[in-house]
Write a structure and sequence with these properties.
Its cofactor is FAD. Residues 7-297 form the FAD/NAD(P)-binding domain. The chain is of the alpha/beta class. It is built from six helices and 19 strands. Strands 1, 2, 5, 6, 7, 8 and 19 form a seven-stranded mixed β-sheet that branches. Strands 10-17-11-12-13 form a five-stranded parallel β-sheet. Helix 1 (14-26) runs parallel beside helix 2, helix 1 (14-26) runs parallel beside helix 6 and helix 4 packs parallel to helix 5. The relative contact order is 0.18.
């Protein structure tokens, strides 16, 4: 076990974490990035082609984009640690982080960019066809299903907003919801119901996702009332049943909202603890885009730099 002292440590990688590291590195702080033991780079490492990140007119593969950001952060002096934070102590001016491997890191400032995890269906075929028909981001992948049948799973505002967006591309969009009424806002329900390209399939759950080497071909649905099953053709399955922010390791050290996202002060990235900042999907429950996370990572770095300058 070792103890390391730093000016600033970033917990988490991905667009927010790497952008914060680039800015803080260029400011001369040589940040340490706790990038994660299993999935450094965040959700984009599991994404195929990214076409909506500025600067890449031909698109770029998600892992390639994250690898480029990592290299840029390291170029400016960031040190990456491939481990997970399992405990924090933010009670003193110097913050202490405990890693899963047993090491500890102290920092005068901390930036939390641990992101969020999509909630998954947990049905056969979901993992097998992830990235080959199963998606968790309509704005990222909708374009790839132009002229093809699409299924959206969920019943909240995000599900119906995604269905409306996907109706621009798919030959049809079927919203599958397990209950007989939507949790979404009435205006979104009315909009979906009036869209001739959207069908609402209530009281149903996805039992299985089927396909072949080319990708998803259909989903098997189970009626929650009578238990009967049916098969629905689909080439795209968009799972929109919520996100879970990765904040368990904080164990009450920061203020969270009712859904577990870190609360920040207005448009800043300042948390309720001086010297601790947060950015990306661990804060943002609305937009959840790589470019918005990167922008917030920039703001977190500037907020942290200002904090450290005032300390000095």
């Amino acid at each position: 076990m070792t103890a390391q002292q730093t000016d600033v440590t970033i917990i988490g990688s991905g667009p927010a974490g790497y952008t914060a590291a680039i800015y803080l590195g260029r400011a001369g702080y040589q940040p340490t990035v706790i990038a994660g033991a299993l999935t450094p780079g965040g959700q984009l490492v599991n994404t195929t082609e990214v076409e909506n990140y500025p600067g890449f007119p031909e698109g770029i593969m998600g892992p390639d984009l994250m690898d480029a950001m990592r290299k840029q952060a390291e170029r400016f002096g960031a040190k990456l640690v491939y481990d997970d934070v399992v405990g924090v102590d933010f009670s003193a001016g110097t913050k202490t982080l405990t890693l899963d491997g047993g090491d500890t890191i102290t920092a005068r400032a901390v930036v939390v960019t641990t992101g969020s995890r999509v909630r998954k269906l947990g049905v056969p075929g979901e993992a097998e066809f992830a990235g080959r028909g199963v998606s968790y981001c309509a704005t990222c992948d909708g374009f790839f299903f132009r002229g093809k049948p699409i299924v959206v799973v969920g019943g909240g505002d995000s599900a119906l907003t995604d269905a409306d967006f996907l109706s621009r591309f798919g030959s049809s969009v079927t919203v599958v919801h397990r209950r007989d009424a939507f949790r979404a806002s009435k205006i979104l329900v009315d909009r979906a119901a009036s869209n001739e390209r959207i069908a609402l399939h209530m009281n149903a759950v996805v039992e299985r996702i089927d396909g072949d080497d080319s990708g998803v071909q259909s989903v098997v649905l189970r009626d929650t009332v009578d238990g009967s099953t049916s098969t629905l053709p689909a080439n795209g399955v968009f799972v929109t049943i919520g996100h879970t922010p990765a904040t368990e390791f904080l164990d009450g050290a920061l203020e969270l909202d009712e859904h577990g996202f870190i609360v920040v002060d207005g448009a800043s990235t300042r948390t309720n603890v001086p010297g601790v900042f947060a950015a990306g999907d661990v804060v943002d429950s609305v937009y959840r885009q790589a470019v918005s996370a990167a922008g917030m990572g920039c703001r977190a770095a500037l907020d942290a730099q200002d904090y450290l300058t005032n300390l000095d």
